[in-house]
């Protein structure tokens, strides 16, 4: 029995066990969610053709223009020399544009809410709001910090 235990825990057996455990614990890429997560494999800002600093109005304007162009009911088709795909490709592009807009709309809304929460807590903003409410920019006042 002692010989069997010694053979099982020999240096070669330990390395094999360590390798099996390491292989089992290695992180694997998540493939199930990447297809529909954040506009597939593309960046939502690039799908809509706007910069990362774009405002909500610019994002909405870009979405409306692209949606008008690729909407399945309004799509007129491409000329014979076009890059192909037809109505099905336009429908897929429209779905990608819609997903990008929804993702960015929610993201920008969360950014605004986070900023409002920070401003509500910050004493400097409280003082500014109180000043605007009571005196406003009409009078010159000095506030000692």
TrEMBL record:
<comment type="similarity">
    <text>Belongs to the DNAJC25 family.</text>
</comment>
<keyword id="KW-0143">Chaperone</keyword>
<dbReference type="InterPro" id="IPR044632">
    <property type="entry name" value="DNAJC25-like"/>
</dbReference>
<dbReference type="GO" id="GO:0005789">
    <property type="term" value="C:endoplasmic reticulum membrane"/>
</dbReference>
<dbReference type="Pfam" id="PF00226">
    <property type="entry name" value="DnaJ"/>
</dbReference>
<keyword id="KW-1133">Transmembrane helix</keyword>
<keyword id="KW-0812">Transmembrane</keyword>
<keyword id="KW-0732">Signal</keyword>
<dbReference type="InterPro" id="IPR001623">
    <property type="entry name" value="DnaJ_domain"/>
</dbReference>
<feature type="signal peptide">
    <location>
        <begin position="1"/>
        <end position="32"/>
    </location>
</feature>
<feature type="domain" description="J">
    <location>
        <begin position="43"/>
        <end position="109"/>
    </location>
</feature>
<dbReference type="InterPro" id="IPR036869">
    <property type="entry name" value="J_dom_sf"/>
</dbReference>
<protein>
    <recommendedName>
        <fullName>DnaJ homolog subfamily C member 25</fullName>
    </recommendedName>
</protein>
<keyword id="KW-0472">Membrane</keyword>
<dbReference type="GO" id="GO:0006457">
    <property type="term" value="P:protein folding"/>
</dbReference>
């Amino acid at each position: 029995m002692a010989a069997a235990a010694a053979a099982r825990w020999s240096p070669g057996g330990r390395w094999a066990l360590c390798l099996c455990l390491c292989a089992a614990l290695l992180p694997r890429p998540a493939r199930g969610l990447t297809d529909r997560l954040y506009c597939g494999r593309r960046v939502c800002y690039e799908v809509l053709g706007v910069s990362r600093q774009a405002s909500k109005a610019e994002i909405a304007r870009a979405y409306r223009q692209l949606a008008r162009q690729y909407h399945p009911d309004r799509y007129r088709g491409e000329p014979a020399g076009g890059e192909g795909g037809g109505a099905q490709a336009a429908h897929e592009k429209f779905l990608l544009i819609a997903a990008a807009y929804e993702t960015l709309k929610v993201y920008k809304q969360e950014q605004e809410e986070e900023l409002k929460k920070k401003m509500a807590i910050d004493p400097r903003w409280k003082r500014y709001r109180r000043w605007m409410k009571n005196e406003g920019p009409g009078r010159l006042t000095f506030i000692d910090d």
